Amino acid sequence: xxxxxxxxxxxxxxxxxxxxxxxxxxxxxxxxxxxxxxxxxxxxxxxxxxxxxxxxxxxxxxxxxxxxxxxxx
Length: 73
Prior knowledge:
With about 70 residues, the chain is mostly helical.
């Protein structure tokens, strides 16, 4: 039987667009009574397409944190 920790390790190795899609689906599954709005679904789809097409790029987490710290300083 696969553990949650094993699943998490595998998921964290996926490309960002795949992780984003999985995160959205997990959040959606937690709130069964309230569906995502059509606008939010369209935005998620737009972001996934943008990432998979290469239109948007990734930034490393440490770079992001450094940039945020510069802005907030």
